[in-house]
Amino acid sequence: MDKSTIILAGGFSSRFGQDKGLLPLANKPLIKHVLDTISDIVDEKIVVVSSEVQAEKFAKVVGSDVNVLIDASNVQSPLVGALTGFKETRGEYALLLPCDTPLVSRDVLSLLLELCINKNAVIPRWPNGYIEPLQAVYCTKPALEAAKNVLSEGILDMRSMVEKLRGVRYVSTLVLQQLDPTLRTFFNINTPLDLKKAEFMLRNVKK
Q1: What pLDDT score was predicted for residue 203?
Q2: How far is 162 from 203, CA to CA, in rounded Å?
Q3: CB contact set of 62 (below 8 Å; sequence gap of 6+)
Q4: How far apart are the first and last CA of the chain?
Q5: How far, in Å, are 32, 74, 95, 188 from residue 193 at the CA level?
Q6: Most confident of 22-31, 122-131, 148-157
Q7: Would you put residue 91 in left (φ > 0), alpha (ψ -120 to 50) or beta?
Q8: Can you give the pLDDT at residue 130?
Q9: Which of 60, 66, 120, 176 could cross-link to 45 by cystine, CB 3.0-4.6 Å?
Q10: Ramachandran region, residue 123 (left: φ > 0; alpha: ψ -120 to 50; beta: rest)
């Protein structure tokens, strides 16, 4: 098994009053939009949540072919969720994604997976230097060790984990725009207005 995906879904949205990944968009939970996009480009699908209650809710939605894991720590952080996924995944490479980016581009993600061969990570980077560590591909074993090291130091920042990795390839968002002209792949849902924007984009732009 070469390629897995780890989708982080542990966050509860106070703005929406429910788990963000279960929010309906075009009659389908956000997390299902992500899962449907990556279903045929990975060999294993993992969803990481933060509690038993969340695990039960998501298990009813994601399907029997998706492994739902519970964070190993009570601390809610994307890095903790990533570590949980890295520990359990069987893939040599793991595509890490948030559950609240329903417009992720299959073409962009496929490219990142292709570019990760013989690299410890492939991470999108904006012209201003900002990186997207939560829409990136990692070589599982080095990433697991880096995540453990950072957390042992009491650091919860994904970028600190990335800094401990050697052999990281950064891909400019200018390059990714050739596949996804408006870069809607990075559009995440944080507010009710974002949800309305996503509905508009789904109606008016073909995937």
Answers
A1: 83
A2: 36
A3: 31, 32, 35, 45, 47, 68
A4: 28
A5: 20, 30, 28, 11
A6: 122-131
A7: beta
A8: 96
A9: 66
A10: beta
Average pLDDT over the chain reads: 92
For residues 143 and 138, what is the distance between their CA atoms, to the nearest angstrom? Answer: 6
Q: What is the DSSP string of 57-105?
A: HHHHHH-TTEEEEE-SSSS--HHHHHHHHHHH---SEEEEEETT-TT--
pTM flag (> 0.85) = yes
* Residue that has been written with the tokens 């073409």 in this structure: 107
Q: For the chain, what percent of residues have pLDDT higher than 70?
A: 95
What is the β-pairing status of strands 44-49 and 28-29? unpaired
The residue ranges of DSSP E strands in the chain, in sequence order, are 3-8, 12-13, 18-19, 24-25, 28-29, 44-49, 66-70, 93-98, 121-125, 136-139, 168-172
Tokens 């990335």 sit on residue: 162
Domains: count for the chain:
1
Residue 148 sits in which domain range?
Answer: 3-204
Task: Report whether 57 contacts 22 (CB < 8 A).
Answer: yes
**What is the widest separation between alpha-carbon atoms in the chain?**
46
Q: What is the CATH classification number for the domain harbouring 166?
A: 3.90.550.10
Structure tokens at 119: 């690299």
DSSP structural state of residue 185: G
What residue has token string 């279960």? 22
- Does 122 score more than 80 pLDDT? yes
pLDDT at 110 over 60: yes
- For 116-165, where are the alpha helices, taking DSSP H only? 140-152, 158-163
pLDDT (mean) for 183-198 = 93
